[in-house]
Amino acid sequence: MPNTTGPLVAALLYDGLCTFEFGIVSEIFGLPRPEMGPDWYRFASCAIEDGPLRAHGGVRILADHGAELLDQADLIVIPGWKGAEAPVPPTLVARLRRAHARGARLASICSGAFVLAATGLLDGAAVTTHWRHAQALQRRFPALRVDSTSLYRETDRIFTSAGSAAGIDLLIEIVRQDYGPAAANSVARRIVMPAHRTGGQAQFLERPVSLRAEADIAPVLDRVRQALHQSWPIARLADEAAMSRRSFERRVVAATGMPAGEWLATERVEAAKTLLQETSRPMEDIAEAVGFGSVFALRHHFRSRVKLSPSEYRRNFARRKPSPA
C-alpha cells in the first residue's frame, strides 16, 4: 500500500474478475498522487477466494491480500460480479454487513450491485446497475427499487453505479465528498474525464453525441461557465455562437444530451455545489454568483437535481473549515 494515511479502500478480487471495473478503482484510489498530500487514500486488493484468479482478457491475478483485510477497510468496492445468477458467498455477505455496521462505505460498479443486494442492506432502497442487468436485479431481489436510468445512487453509505464508465463518475463523486471539488477535478483531469456528472444523469443518450457540434459550440459553453452570474437567454447564446437559435439549440442537445436551458441550470447547480462545499458564503450571495438571482430559484433548481436543499447539501458535504471568500 502507498505511504499515505487516508481512508483504506479495498477492491474485491474474484475468479472471473471484470478487468475494466477493477482497473478504474485501482486508477482512482491506488495510483500515487503526491500532489494530494499524505492523507490521500490507501488502496489494497483483496481476494475473496484462493488464486490464481482469472480476469477478463486472459489475465491471471495473484492478490497481495485476502478477504480478512476487508475488516479494516473504510470503503469496499465491488468491481462487477461473475454474473446475474452467480451466488454470493455467505462469508462475503457477512463481512460486508459487518463492515457497514462499523461505519464503512460500500460501493459497486455495474453487476457488483448483485453482491450488495445479497446483503439485504439495500432492501426498500433505490439502486442502479447497468441497464441490461436492471430487470434481472429486480427479479432476483424484489425488495429493491431498481433505477435503470441513473448513473449512480447512494443510500446510507452504500453506493451503486451503472455500467463500466459510470463507475468512474461514482468514484470521482466519492473523491468529491471526501476531499472536495478541487481534488475531484484534479483526478478527473488526470484521467481525461469530465469533472462531474450527477448521479441522476441518464445512462445513455437516444442518439450519439456529435463531436463536431460540441467543437462548434464549446467556446460558447466555456464562456458561459466562466460567467454564470450573467444573464444567458437562448438568443444571446445563439448570437455568441453565430448561429440561428434553432441551430444552436439542436447543437447543444447533440453535444450535451439536454436542451440549452437545462444545461445552463445544471451548470449553475454544479457551481453552487462547489460554493456550498468550499465557502461559508450566505445563500443570497451564492444564488447571485451562479446566476439564479434569488434564493427561491436556487432552492428550486437545486432540489430538483440534487434531491436536497442547498442547506442540507452544505451540512452533508461542506469541508470542515469552509472559507468565507
Automatic annotation (TrEMBL):
Designated name of the protein: Transcriptional regulator FtrA
Alphabetical list of Pfam families matching this protein: DJ-1_PfpI, HTH_18
Domain HTH araC/xylS-type stretches: 218-316
Alphabetical keyword list: DNA-binding, Transcription, Transcription regulation
InterPro entries per the UniProt record, alphabetical: Class_I_gatase-like, DJ-1/PfpI, Homeodomain-like_sf, HTH_AraC, HTH_AraC-typ_CS, INH-QAR
Upper lineage: Bacteria, Pseudomonadati, Pseudomonadota, Alphaproteobacteria, Acetobacterales
Gene: ftrA
Gene Ontology molecular function terms on file: DNA-binding transcription factor activity; sequence-specific DNA binding
Keyword DNA-binding assigned: yes
